[in-house]
Amino acid sequence: MFVTAPEFLPQHREQRQQLLQIVSAAEARGQARAVETNRQVLGNLEKIITGLESDPGQAEATADAS
């Protein structure tokens, strides 16, 4: 289980930007497995960011590390 809090939103957003760049570069190189893996991580990160943004009063957000 992964636990985070709203004060970490800037870091989560930065990680999202980095992952988008990694996915884009992997797509350009035809690295399907890297694209798949990083899209899964990106999906989990999007859930975390959305959860923290949608409920700013929430003390923390959790996500399964699947």
Describe the fold and architecture.
The longest helix is centred in the middle third of the chain and has 23 residues, at 32-54. This protein has one domain (8-56). It has 66 residues and is mainly alpha-helical. The chain has helices spanning 9-28, 32-54; strands spanning 2-4, 61-63. It is 65% helix and 9% strand.
Largest sheet: 2 strands, antiparallel
Tell me the radius of gyration: 13 Å
What do the pLDDT scores average to? 88
Determine the oligomeric state from the structure.
single chain
- N- to C-terminal separation? 9 Å
Which strands sit side by side, in order, in the main sheet?
1-2
Write the element-wise H/E pattern from the N-terminal end onward.
Answer: EHHE
The helix-and-strand class reads: mainly alpha
Number of E strands: 2
Which helices and strands occur, and which strands form pairs?
Elements: E1 2-4, H1 9-28, H2 32-54, E2 61-63
Antiparallel strand pairs: 1-2
Summarize the structure.
The chain is 65% helix and 9% strand. It is mainly alpha-helical.
Notable characteristics:
65% helix; mainly alpha; 66 residues; 2 strands
